[in-house]
């Protein structure tokens, strides 16, 4: 009798579909691995910037996008254009470029008024990640916050490459598929205007496979040029003498 009922339980596990302990991305990946190795990202053109990204959206509607130069590979470091879009209900969301929490570049993003703030970090343990200077960001058009979402678009030098424990720089294979990790929390950061703000632990983390090879484009540099933010556009009018500029 026991044997029969546990068999029925086992059968219902399969018929009921998605086991609750798996997030949708890893479940989708597990399903797809039965067929073929396939990435979780798909091509999407962002209307605001005109950039075509490889795009992945997780189970709480946080979207992670990437565009790479045409010759990106594991041979030498390259810049990337990244885009992160999150429902405003998240206090912060993050991208781990090495696919795990520690010892790789982390991009943390949150809303700051009408703007979106990024923070370059690296976790040296399972506690608040430190500031990370080896990745530099140039904020591009397609960055801000509204009533429902915050969105960051940036050029990053040092997101796809970092030194390993021996000091050798390793570069994500831009000609292949790569595993990334995400984390998010609905708790706001302590000081939204400050890139060095402290924040508390994630509500959840997860992993996905991004198709870097398909994210490559020979339009990369023209996309960067077309979306450079004109500092004068954003300068507040200041009155000096009789001229306003
Ligand atoms: C105050 C900030 C944070 C705290 C206190 C924190 C703490 C922790 C702790 C305690 C774990 C569990 C470790 C274990 O499995 O034993 C963990 C796992 C993890 N965290 Fe964080 N975390 C923070 C921020 C971040 C950020 C910004 C990311 C970026 C994506 C991140 C990504 C991950 C991932 C992917 C895991 C799964 C295990 C691994 O990859 O090593 N965490 N974190
Ligand atoms: C708010 O921002 C999101 C993300 O950029 C966008 O999809 C949405 O259309 C915006 N909403 C409004 C009302 O502009
Ligand atoms: C920046 O300013 C120049 C003129 O000074 C203008 O032609 C260009 O369109 C502006 N760029 C953006 C992204 O607004």
Describe the structure.
There is one protein chain. With 245 residues, this protein is of the alpha+beta class. The protein has a single domain, classed as Immunoglobulin-like (Sandwich). The protein is 16% helix and 37% strand. The chain contains five helices and 18 strands. The strands form four sheets. Strands 1, 2, 3, 4, 9, 10, 11 and 16 form an eight-stranded mixed β-sheet that branches. The chain has a six-stranded antiparallel β-sheet with strand order 8-7-6-5-14-15. Strands 12-13 form a two-stranded antiparallel ribbon. Strand 10 and strand 11 form a beta hairpin. 35% of the residues are buried. The structure holds protoporphyrin IX containing FE (HEM) and 2-acetamido-2-deoxy-beta-D-glucopyranose (NAG) (2 copies). One 2-acetamido-2-deoxy-beta-D-glucopyranose (NAG) binds next to loops.
The outline comes out as globular
Q: What ligand molecules are bound, each kind once?
A: protoporphyrin IX containing FE, 2-acetamido-2-deoxy-beta-D-glucopyranose
Helix content: 10-25%
Indicate the proportion of strand residues: 35-45%
Give the number of domains. Answer: 1
User: Radius of gyration, rounded?
Assistant: 20 Å
User: How would you classify the helix and strand content by structural class?
Assistant: alpha+beta
Q: So what's the CATH class? A: Mainly Beta
| Unreliable parts | 1-23, 27-36, 234-245
**Average pLDDT, all residues:** 86
The CATH H-level superfamily is: Cellobiose dehydrogenase, cytochrome domain
Please, how many helices?
A: 5
Largest sheet: 8 strands, mixed
Reported by name, the CATH topology is Immunoglobulin-like
Pfam families: CDH-cyt
Domain Cellobiose dehydrogenase-like cytochrome: 46-221
Keywords: Signal
InterPro entries: Cellobiose_DH-like_cyt (IPR015920)
């Amino acid at each position: 009798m026991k044997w029969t009922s546990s068999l029925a339980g086992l059968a219902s596990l399969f018929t009921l579909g998605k086991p609750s302990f798996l997030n949708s991305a890893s479940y989708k990946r597990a399903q797809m691995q039965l067929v073929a190795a396939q990435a979780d990202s798909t091509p999407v053109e962002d209307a605001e910037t005109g950039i075509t990204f490889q795009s992945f959206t997780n189970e709480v509607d946080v979207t992670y996008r990437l565009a790479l130069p045409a010759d990106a590979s594991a041979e030498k470091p390259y810049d990337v254009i990244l885009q992160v879009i999150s429902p405003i209900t998240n206090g912060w969301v993050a991208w781990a470029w090495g696919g795990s929490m520690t010892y790789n570049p982390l991009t943390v993003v949150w809303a700051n008024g009408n703007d979106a703030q990024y923070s370059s970090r690296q976790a040296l343990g399972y506690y608040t990640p430190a500031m990370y200077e080896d990745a530099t960001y140039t904020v591009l058009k397609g960055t801000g916050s509204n009533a429902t979402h915050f969105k960051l678009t940036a050029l990053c030098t040092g997101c796809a490459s970092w030194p390993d424990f021996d000091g050798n720089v390793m570069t994500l294979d831009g000609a292949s598929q790569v595993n990334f990790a995400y984390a998010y929390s609905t708790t706001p950061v302590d000081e939204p205007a400050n890139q060095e703000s402290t924040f508390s632990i994630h509500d959840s983390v997860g992993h996905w496979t991004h198709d870097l090879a398909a994210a490559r484009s020979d339009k990369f540099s023209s996309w960067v040029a077309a979306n450079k933010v004109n500092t004068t556009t954003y300068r507040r009018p200041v009155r000096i003498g009789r001229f306003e500029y």
